[in-house]
């Protein structure tokens, strides 16, 4: 579904991604791991058009995506759950979630999809009229995921969805990721929590200084001391 080939990204004269290549197969969950500053978020921002690649190719369903705007990429079927959730605190839960459908005009289907989000996250249905800024971190993450789903993506990019969540809520997030994948969503997951990645992903790539330093089955990461020490600092 998604093929990244020889991707290079720079901020000014600083090269952030160096010749990154990997694939995400349809229906799979692939994890990207690495320390702070390794380039994980930059990859997602490039895939969604917030950052433009210096060189390389991004193929989504066999169509080139480099140079397309975020609006065009969302319409093609890619959606992002951003790091830090980035909800609008002074807007209601309902209004926040509906923002995800900004590229759509099929109003009847939008209403159906909104109810589907409430079915996935019953707490949001109860709090639909409350301000998003009054929600807990876990509930705000539900809003961010629901907002992304409103674009009807086929590929969902998730940037550290477990960050800042209480341990018991992290377990719920794992269940949510698996449920979304079971619904047919292909997921590219950026995480620093190796336990989350091992629990949900089939394969994993570890970034170090803007390049892929290790690739392999995600489930084996927690038993690989060389990977934990060398690339994740554990």
**Structural class of the secondary structure composition?**
alpha/beta
Strand content: 25-35%
Low-confidence stretches: none
Largest β sheet strand count, sense and barrel closure: 6 strands, mixed
Q: CATH homologous superfamily of the largest domain?
A: P-loop containing nucleotide triphosphate hydrolases
Count of DSSP E strands?
10
Number of domains: 2
Order of strands, widest sheet: 6-7-8-3-9-10
Q: What's the helix-strand series?
A: EEEHEEHEHHHHEHEHEEH
Instruction: Compute the CA-based radius of gyration.
Output: 17 Å
Shape: globular
Structure description:
The chain is α/β, with parallel strands linked by helices and 234 residues long. It folds into two domains: 1-77 and 155-234, 3-Layer(aba) Sandwich (Rossmann fold), CATH 3.40.50.300; 87-152, no CATH class. 35% of the residues lie in helices and 26% in strands. The chain is built from nine helices and ten strands. It has helices at 40-47, 70-76, 93-98, 107-120, 122-126, 137-149, 167-182, 194-200, 225-230, and strands at residues 2-11, 14-24, 29-33, 55-60, 63-64, 78-81, 155-159, 186-190, 203-208, 211-217. The strands form two sheets. The protein has a six-stranded mixed sheet, with helices on both faces. The chain has a four-stranded antiparallel sheet with strand order 2-1-4-5, covered by helices on one side. Strand 4 (55-60) and strand 5 (63-64) form a beta hairpin. It is globular, with a radius of gyration of 17 Å. The two termini are 32 Å apart. The model has no long low-confidence stretch (mean pLDDT 93).
């Amino acid at each position: 579904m998604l093929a990244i080939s020889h991707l290079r990204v720079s901020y000014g004269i600083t090269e952030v991604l160096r010749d990154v290549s990997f694939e995400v197969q349809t229906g799979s969950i692939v994890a990207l791991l690495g320390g702070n500053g390794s380039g994980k978020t930059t990859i997602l921002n490039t895939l969604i058009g917030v950052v433009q690649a210096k060189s390389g190719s991004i193929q989504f369903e066999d169509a080139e995506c480099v140079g397309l705007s975020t609006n065009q990429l969302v319409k093609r079927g890619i959606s992002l759950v951003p790091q830090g959730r980035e909800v609008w605190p002074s807007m209601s839960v309902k209004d926040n979630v509906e923002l995800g459908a900004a590229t759509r005009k099929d109003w009847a289907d939008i209403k159906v999809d909104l109810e589907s989000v409430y079915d996935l996250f019953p707490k949001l249905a109860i709090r639909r009229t409350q301000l998003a800024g009054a929600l807990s971190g876990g509930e705000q993450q539900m809003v961010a995921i629901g907002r992304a789903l409103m674009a009807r993506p086929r590929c969902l990019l998730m940037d550290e969805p477990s960050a800042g969540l209480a341990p018991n809520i992290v377990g719920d997030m794992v269940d949510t990721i698996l449920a979304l994948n079971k619904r047919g969503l292909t997921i590219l997951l950026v995480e620093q929590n190796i336990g989350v990645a091992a629990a949900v992903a089939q394969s994993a790539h570890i970034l170090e200084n803007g390049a892929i330093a290790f690739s392999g089955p995600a489930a084996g990461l927690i038993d690989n001391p060389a990977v934990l020490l060398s690339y994740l600092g554990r």
